Fold:
Amino acid sequence: MFRVCVNVQIFIYLLIFLVVKLLGIKVYIFDVFCWAVFFCLGIIFRNILPYLKSKICLYSTFALTLLSLITLFFILGVNHKYYNDVSVFNILPKVISDIFMFSLFLNLSEKTKFFKYFSKYGKYSLIIYLVHAPLLSVCRVIILKFGMVNELILATILILIGWYGSLTVVWLNNRLRLVRFIFNAYATIYKKSNFL
Structure:
């Protein structure tokens, strides 16, 4: 089987992403190359857990995340469209904030309620990832149709809708075979065949 090193994959995705963005190619499928970077980051993070757990990583990525967000705010303003999709302006801040969030979670005590709450949903992360994007896109359009909304209020509403809407789908996934089939067809069919 043909295998490509994850570092090479990230380089290829970033290269295609930069070409698409700099040339202004408006083909939606090419956005896959950009978002694929974040899937590959998970593999890299798994291999550098001791570094991510260090206080130096935690504090430096926190500072860089704040600095990059403030810089983006002064350059791009507060319009959500500049922050939602990945662009040449915000890909680095998004990657840095991902590193910070991983580091933050690794530095939390496993005994805290916060840690326990989010760790139990880890196995459903793919469902949450797949559900939140279209859900938020639809909700954002609906909310904005009612008139201008404060960006902070909009962000807060969308975070709540994205999280609890995704958890609703996770709940349905655990109870309805049809929903389970949509998100994991192979496992659903395999389990069914075991009952025969």
